[in-house]
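Z., the sequence and structure:
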Amino acid sequence: MAVRLHVGCGTVYLDGYVNLDVQVPGYSFLASERPDLADRNRTTVDRYYKKEESQESLEHGPGEVQYCVVDRYADLRALPYEPDTADEIRNVQVLEHLGMREAPAVLRHWYEILRPGGMLHVDVPDFEETARQLLAQPDEASKDWYYRLVYGSQKNAYAFHKNGFSPARLERLLREAGFREVRPVENRIHFYPVTIAEAIK
């Protein structure tokens, strides 16, 4: 059976994956202990977000309390898997929360865990395109949304962005981590600027 890891899953519980995230008391729960929450968060890769996101939903929340549901608690910087054991690692809007020095080390860590031929799916905000759109705004108030995209919502300790990416920078970091093939992926789930790549070990 293929080992597919969904790293930094947050409130998205993907079918067919081992959903992993850190333990936060009162916010994150094991699916085995809270199957009701797992069912509420359950979705598929083809419909990653069950509810369509908008600026309104990101700024003011979805209108209901959301929880993180995992199959296993794990820090993405030290995943509890042996080298060459995972077929896929998928992460969406995660890598930007790591510092400039952390991100390359994490990419190398994920590379080691993947089997030869395994695939890493990385989805991050596009810093350069966001900056272009920010500078094109007609007034200062209009820029606030783009500053939020750059620096994160900052609603909790995990919601700060510490890193920025462009398609070229993401590809360079993936190749420097050892991936032999990197291909861009079309954005079908976000309404704001992102860069998405799949890299093959």
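The mean pLDDT is 94. Residues 96 and 163 are 5 Å apart (CA to CA).

Let me know what you think.
H.
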